[in-house]
Amino acid sequence: MNSNATIWDQxxxxxxxxxxxxxxxxxxxxxxxxxxKTILNLKEEIRHIDAERIRLQNFKSTQYQRLxxxxxxxHKAELMEVIDTDKLLMALSSKDQQLRDLKSTSLx
Length: 108
Known about the structure:
With 108 residues, the chain is mainly alpha-helical.
């Protein structure tokens, strides 16, 4: 009778360990599933960040080119400010008058 009780106790102990192991397995599977979902979310976020990085690089490149164009235009505008346009117009008008005078003298 004693051996039956021992075997019964061992069976109950084994069933108890089995229940604990099944609970641990379930918890581990749930943790694994949550981790896999997190990994997928992070991969998607990385793809999104990479796409944004590429878009930003293209934007920066375009803006850099635009800045260079504007700097060139600004430099030309600064040069135009330095030039005395009134003086140039007067000189051009004077040369134009001289040319007309020369033409009229050569025609006469």
